Amino acid sequence: MTPPRHPCTSERSPRRVVLLVEDEPFVREATCHILQSAGFDVLPASDAQEAMRVYEHNGRKIDLLMTDMALPGRNGRQLAHDLRNTSAEIPILLTSGYVESECEPREARTYFLPKPYSRAELVEMMETILSEALRRPTATQAS
C-alpha cells in the first residue's frame, strides 16, 4: 500500500484544502503548483483509490474535490459519488479534455472546467466555487 502523499502547502492562511485527483503526473504537479501559489493546500492523488486513502488519512477534511473525469479504474464521476456518500456538502470540480454530455454537472455543488485551462481560469473557478460555500467552515477549522 502506498502511503498518502504530503500536501502541497502554501504560506497563506486561512487555507482551503483541495483534494486534487489527476492521473497525468505533469498536469497534477502543474495544477498543484498553481493552486498552492493561489493560497490553497493541495492533497494530490493519481487515481480514485488513492484519493479515498488520502481523504481518509486527512480525517475526511477537505473543502473541495477537483478530479479529472478520465482516471484509471473508477472514473472521476464515480469518485465524486463515493465522496458525496460520506460528505454530501463537498463541492466538486470535474475536469476533462473531452467535451461530452457525460462531463456536464448533474448534481448541486458540481462544476465543470474543460481542459486545457489557464491559471486564471482555474483560480477564478476555485474562488467562485468556494465563495458559494463560505457559510460552512474550512476543513482545517472543522473538528
Would you mind describing this structure in some detail?
With 143 residues, the protein is α/β, with parallel strands linked by helices. It has one domain (16-132): Rossmann fold (3-Layer(aba) Sandwich), CATH 3.40.50. Helices cover 34% and strands 19% of the residues. The chain has 4 helices and 5 strands. It has helices spanning 25-37, 48-57, 76-86, 119-132; strands at 16-21, 40-45, 64-68, 92-96, 110-114. A 5-stranded parallel sheet has the order 2-1-3-4-5, with helices on both faces. Helix 1 links the parallel strand 1 and strand 2. The longest helix is centred in the C-terminal third of the chain and has 14 residues, at 119-132. It is globular and about 30 Å long. The model is unreliable at 1-7 and 9-13 (pLDDT under 50).
